[in-house]
Amino acid sequence: MNIYQIEHTIDYTYTQPVNFAPHQLRLRPRSNVHQSVLKFDLSISPTPDKLVEAVDLDGNNQIVAWFDNHLATNLHIHAQTTVSTNLSDPFNYLLEPWATQLPIDYPRWLAQQLQPYLTGYLFHSIDPIAIELAGQIWQSVNANTLAFLTELNQQIYSTCTYALRDAGSPLPPGITWENRSGSCRDLVVLFIEVCRAVGLAGRFVSGYEAGAETDDRHLHAWAEIYLPGGGWRGYDPTHGLLVAADHIAIVSSPFPAQTTPVEGKLQTIGNIGMEMNYRLMIQKT
Hints:
This protein has helices at residues 108-113, 128-140, 145-159, 173-179, 184-197; strands spanning 2-18, 20-25, 35-45, 50-55, 61-66, 72-85, 161-162, 181-182, 202-209, 220-227, 231-236, 241-242, 247-253, 262-266, 274-284. The protein is of the alpha+beta class. Strands 12-11-10-9-13 form a 5-stranded antiparallel β-sheet, covered by helices on one side. The protein is globular.
């Protein structure tokens, strides 16, 4: 078991005083058989009039902050978390016999449940470049499910250059593969798209990577693929790794846009400039 102390601070600064509409905060890590939140403290300035804790459609922890009409030029969010992780062996499962080869013949009830995790990133259509890459890997591994995932993970890791990009939506998967470069979220969307091209259900995960020894911390992203018999299993194409005890998941969704740590609008109308800064500290105890 690993125990981590996490401090995550996000600051928004505006060029003039503004009123805040409700903000959704996705900063409390999830708790399940692989990780547990031992302590979570959240402070916000200006102080919200009301905080509502909820579980969203994907089963993630969500906090909605409702603000009064107090004008402010800054929004300060500070989350302190203590979390334990215990996934020491990511290979500790047995696939259902009918899921060892691609394409997987899902039972009808399961296929219906997995539909949101099987559609393409753009316009619900799978990217042709992802389909081509999927076909090449499929052939090279003789349609073996786990070998396909391992080879895809390694190909993206060894072929694509990592590029830090703090803001913006993930790039279309075809563009990432053509450029052979992308941020962690770009590489994850590419990984998921190729998996979906062969009928493997995938979802986008946002969280913390605790294993690296560095003070220059950033939010991280990886993929989870649904494997019958193993459930959701994580793959990190940025590092070519299977996800284990050094990855701390905050939120997951079939749609990357639903995993942003802070989502909200301003009630104030006008041409308002904004600057965002963040600080992330992770310490193993």
